[in-house]
């Protein structure tokens, strides 16, 4: 194995560039080094102007997502040795506006997550005002708001939503999704998987509210089930499966609303 490898890094400095370009850097090729280590070497020793995001270096925070040799990856989990002898192309995530170099704008992604109300919605209680019920998050220890009632979960109940709770909001599924690339109004795979995480939680009572959002044209029905989102996920979440499951739920609820008298269940 050679002792160095070439990184071909996308550079874009809006104050001086009209479009992105490519810059090459030679970095040490060490068995334990990930692409992120190579970028950190560039930043520390070769070019301090290079811009990118990272935090934990452990595949937990989701902030170091980039396109590595054409695929969306966590740069802390993509090892340089796997791309030897190189070169390795490092580009910003696809389908997002680029702010600078490898840094993308995430505002649209964050707003889409908020639309699905990714928190436990308490069951409304008779005789209590709206401010006391409805959208209230379950905090640590299983307590709801300021109440003292515990909402414990059995292992079987946790198994229902555990897979979808593993999402780290890295946005790789959005970068891989051809639908989001063509239609930015599509709410996207991570938001739908996150909605499913709470819908499957036995403590939550917000499924109907989320369905009102996700049953729209730019919700679940925009997905054409390519499946790239699931393949790209570094945490083995299955957004494509969540979307198909949600489609069945939406179709069932629509049929019930059509066939059953108003107010019936």
UniProtKB/TrEMBL annotation:
Source organism of the structure: Actinoallomurus vinaceus
Catalysed conversion reaction: a menaquinone + succinate = a menaquinol + fumarate
Entry's EC annotation: 1.3.5.1
Similarity remark: Belongs to the succinate dehydrogenase/fumarate reductase iron-sulfur protein family.
Top-rank taxon, per record: Bacteria
UniProt biased composition (Basic and acidic residues): 128-139
Name this protein carries in UniProt: Fumarate reductase iron-sulfur subunit
Keyword Iron-sulfur: yes
InterPro entries referenced in this protein's UniProt entry, alphabetically: 2Fe-2S_ferredoxin-like_sf, 2Fe-2S_ferredoxin-type, 2Fe2S_fd_BS, 4Fe4S_Fe-S-bd, 4Fe4S_Fe_S_CS, Beta-grasp_dom_sf, Helical_ferredxn, SDH/FRD_Iron-Sulfur
